[in-house]
Amino acid sequence: MMTYDVAIIGSGIVGAAIARELAAYDLAICWLEASADVGDGTSKANTAILHTGFDATPGTLESRLVRRGSALLTEYAEEVGIPVERTGAMLVAWTAEELEALPGLAEKAGKNGYLHCSVIGAAQVYEALPALGPGVLGGLRVPDESITCTWTTNLALAGDAVRRGVDLKLSHRVDRVEVGDETVITTPAGSVAARWVINAAGLGSDVIDRLLGHHRFTVVPRRGELLVFDKLSRSLAPCIVLPVPSSKGKGVLISPTIYGNVMLGPTAEDMTDRTATSMSQHGIDFLLERGRKLMPGLLSEEITANYAGVRAAISRNGSDIHGDYLIDIDIDQRYVLVAGIRSTGLTAGMAIAEYVRDLLADQLVLEPRRDVPPTMRMPNIGEAFPRPYERPELIARDPEYGRVICFCERVTAGEIRDALTAVLPARDLGGLRRRTRALNGRCQGFFCGAQVEKMLQEDPA
Amino acid sequence: MTGADQVSIDDVVVVGGGPAGLTAAATLAPHISGRVIVLERESRAGGIPRHSDHTGYGLRDLHRVMTGPAYAQRLVQAAAAAGAQIRTEATVTGWTPTGGLQVTSPRGRAEIRPGAIVLATGARERPRAARLIPGDRVAGIYTTGHLQSAVHLHDLSIGRRAVIVGAELVSWSAVLTLREAGVRTVLMVTTHPRPESFALFNLLGRSVLKVRVRTRSRIVSINGRGRVSSVEIADLRTGARSTVACDTVVLTGDWVPENELARSAGLSIDPESRAPNVDGGLRSTRPGVFAIGNLVHPVDTADVAALDGAHVAAAVREHLQGSRARQDGIPLLAGAGLRWVAPGLVRPDEPPARSKILAWVDDWVPAPVVTASQHGAVVGRRRLPWPAAPGRAFRIPWTVLDEMRPNAGPVTLSLR
């Protein structure tokens, strides 16, 4: 059995960023993913906001890595074509308590190195967001918060990693780890041996940690349910509408999505089941009630989709939710733990990867490769730039980009073909949705569902 | 775009090649100087009937009864024979700033500016997400449209045991499709106190198809891992819950018009039906833009939609001949007992298609009386010999408005 230099467990945003980063060095890397696709856990169902880090707790590792990650991801997004739209955000105060908190939040943003927040009055808030319900007392403007596509980000990082030679093993759920001269990781689909192990298993990170003999934290799966409204509502939400964090918790947000919809959520509900991605009646009722107060007009629009994600919050030593990332290196075990990466992980992922690289720099010989393949442009599935169906030159070159299959989302046969033949090809409808947006629209398959399924079945791969 | 694809100001573009659009094209093509071009986004024209593989089509427009696919084919042939051009795989994606259409097809991306635009984009059933049915994210959940195209157009396998949400005409159409696909319908669930379909269908359904219908009930959860394994059903009166094992759920009815183009054009939209408001001639609120078929009344049967296509031709020709948009008209509003009515604007000299006002009801009324009132005074009343039933269009004779007066404000129709 070949011995890899590094084995990475987990292919969400964080695992993908680490795999890509380490693959720029002369290392043999194995990458294990329990699911049949990369980014199929927590990373696929978040709010897809590219944060400035203005509201992190100053001095934490999270604050530092979100700040750095934001710059890295913004640059990377431009390079590979991840859609990003700088809509800005508005924290809206509805109570005296929230209004009083705004100057403190602006100050905290400064401590996090973000200096562009401004406190504004209710009239200015309504000017920017006329659709807000009555009762706004004031707001805090955060002009650099952006929306992006979490799926494309995950796929871009993972695709780079694979092109750089990382040995990706999908459907490899780790069920044993034995540390010796080399570490042997066992899965039902086969074993691998590696010198170093990096645990980026998200919702499963505590399970993996225990396989290595540790008992330092527990993942507290926290469900977040979201409602996605029809694209015809998009003009109601020109920017991200954030709640002011208060004694009552974080509250729900309203955000435009990069696909042109408007999202309302998430709820926050501690669960015991890590796979609890079902929608609940009480979650739906709660969101509708909140939405009716925040933006009444939104509620008279059609709902296109709803989904639930499970955040990998962690608790240490039986206490409350841990307030920071938990990244630790165990030199004796040749083991790096990357856990407690909450929704900010999308923004911080590339900085987390740098941080992990630096932790390993003293332990491994990190020889930069001279033959790193160039990054590849990602298919654009966002609305910030022209989509293939809008590009005459592309259609003239390849008419398949003019053959619209999914009418609601305007996904063309060319894009579906590309997704089925990519470096990381779609293997099921979920994978195809994340790569193309097919079936994600208002009809949810009424018109094209059968045809898309047929195309997937006929895929020669 | 090549020369043959160019569109001139003498031409009429029909968006949507279903029964309404094709009939409009067939009716208009022989009578205008320019061309009639039907833009159909699917690879074949014909619309929903293409995959409704059972009989019952064509009664009111073709005066004979045939299957959906045969009906679709007849309408396509009639439009082509009349000289209309049918362009398939042509998706209208939006409007140009000057009121033209943006079109994407394998032949290219084009902007066209015809003399008149007829929107015939139809309607669809609300999917699970829009109905906010809680539970697991699983495969095996269909709308009737999705199910029928899977079975009849793409030959995909479905499952073994299905629960159908709804008990209206389209729900029985789903039962037939499921049967053909080898799927047993174990239960139909409706929130209404009785099945919404015609009594004959219910009788046949129960005796021949052996389908149980549970009334006053609602699905409160869809459960499964990867694939549907059961649904939880609540009795609306008692709150009692029960679980039914199934691997397929078909969500029928609950229609919403495909109104994106209508909305993005800024047309006036009825808040209840979400359909563009039209007048008796099927003119929208933008001159030169017309709306017909189930886009306007979600939904009536295919033949009624088709007859809108024949009806709109007069107003389209008037527009092409340079008639100014009419400023007169009496708003028609839905009052008690009616969710919506169409058309939303009427004129005494302009009866609507088939001289019928279409409406939607939420409750079963066996012997309905429709009252028209204007400015607080009753201007018309009719007792109708057919019931008003949820789940299918309620057709009201135009004569109920015989006594309405111009310049006396909106007319409200109510039902009891």
Structure characterization notes:
The complex is a heterodimer of chains A (461) and B (416). In chain A, strand 19 and strand 20 (335-339) form a beta hairpin. Helix content of chain A is 30%, strand content 24%. The mean pLDDT of chain A is 95. Chain A has helices at residues 13-22, 61-80, 96-111, 122-128, 150-163, 205-211, 281-294, 345-361, 392-397, 413-420, 429-436, 449-458, and strands at 3-9, 29-32, 49-50, 84-85, 89-93, 118-121, 138-142, 146-148, 167-169, 176-179, 183-187, 190-199, 217-229, 240-243, 253-256, 262-265, 269-270, 303-316, 326-330, 335-339, 404-406, 411-412. Chain B has a 5-stranded parallel sheet with strand order 3-2-1-7-18, covered by helices on one side. A 5-stranded parallel sheet of chain B has the order 9-16-10-11-12. In chain B, helix 1 (19-28) packs parallel to helix 3 (68-81), helix 1 runs parallel beside helix 9 (302-320) and helix 5 (144-153) runs parallel beside helix 6. Chain B is globular. The model of chain B has no long low-confidence stretch (mean pLDDT 95). Classes of the chains: A alpha+beta (461), B alpha/beta (416). Chain A binds chain B through residues 228, 231-232, 277-281, 283-284, 300, 302-308, 389-392, 395-396, 399-400, 402-404, 407, 410, 429, 442-447, 449-451, 453-454, 457, and chain B through 41-42, 89, 91, 93, 104-109, 124-130, 132, 134-137, 139, 142-143, 145-146, 149-150, 153-154, 156, 220-221, 256, 260, 263-264, 271, 274.
- Outline the low-pLDDT stretches of chain B: none
The count of helical stretches of chain B stands at: 9
* Class per helix and strand makeup of chain A: alpha+beta
Structural class, from helix and strand content of chain B? alpha/beta
